[in-house]
Amino acid sequence: MRKFLLATIALTGVLSAPAMADSWVEVDDAPDGVPAAQHTDGTGPLTSILGRLNRGAGDHVDTYSIIITDPAEFFATTKIDLGGSATTSTGGNADTRLWLWTEQGAPVLANDDINAFGSDTLASLISDPSTFPTLSGGEVVAPTAAQVSLTPGKYLISISLFSNDPDDGVGEEVFNLGADFDALHGPDPAAGPFAAWENPASTTIASYTIALRGATFCVPEPASASLLAIGLAALGLRRRS
Known about the structure:
Blueprint lengths: L1 H15 L6 E3 L12 E2 L8 E7 L7 E7 L6 E3 L7 E4 L7 E7 L4 E5 L13 E3 L4 H4 L7 H4 L6 E9 L4 E2 L28 E2 L7 E9 L1 E3 L7 H16 L1
Parallel strand pairs: 1-3, 2-4
Antiparallel strand pairs: 3-13, 4-10, 4-14, 5-9, 5-13, 6-13, 7-8, 7-10, 11-12
Helix pairs in contact: 1-4
C-alpha cells in the first residue's frame, strides 16, 4: 500500500509539472486592443510571440498581454539578429511597428524601424530608454520617451504594419512618430487616450515573431488540482480492491 501511495504521488507530480514552453502562438485572431488583449498563458520566461496579420481580411493589429520582469533586460523586437522576424506573403521583409501600453491601455513606448544593423531595416524594437541606444545599434531616444522608465509588471504589446498608428478620439496620433521612424518614442502629451487604429487600406499579409527578453507569460498555466484529484481517485480505487 505504501509503495502504491508513493507511486501515485510521484506520477501525479510528473503529470502536474508545468509545461516550460517559452513561446506563445496566436490563437485565432488576437484583439486589436487596447485594453483588450490576448493573454499569454504559460510558465517561465516568454521568449517569443508568433502570429499573423492579414489587413485585407480586417486583421490590422494584434495585441498581447505580457509581464515585464526585468526592465533592464527587456526588449521586444521583430529584428532577425535578435531572434524576431516579420515576413510578407511574397517573402519580403514586412514593415512592422511595435507599441507598448500599460495594462489599462495607456501609451508607454513605440518604435517603427531599426536601420542601424541587419538587412531587415523595417523591423521594430522596444526596450527601456536606458538600453535602447545600445540594443538598437545607436538609434536615438526621442524626447517623449526620455522620461519613461519601465517598471516590472503587466503590459500590453501591439504589433501593426506601416502606416497603421493608434489615434485618440479626434484623430490625433497617440504616439507622434513624425519623420524619425528609427527613434524610440513615448506618448504625445498633446494627444488624448487611445480610441482607434487608423487602419489605412492595404492587403498586406505578414507572419511575425516578436522576440522577447526579460518577460514572462501573463497568466500561469492551470494548477494541478485536477491531476491531484486523479491520483487520489486512483488511490481510493486501490484501497477498495
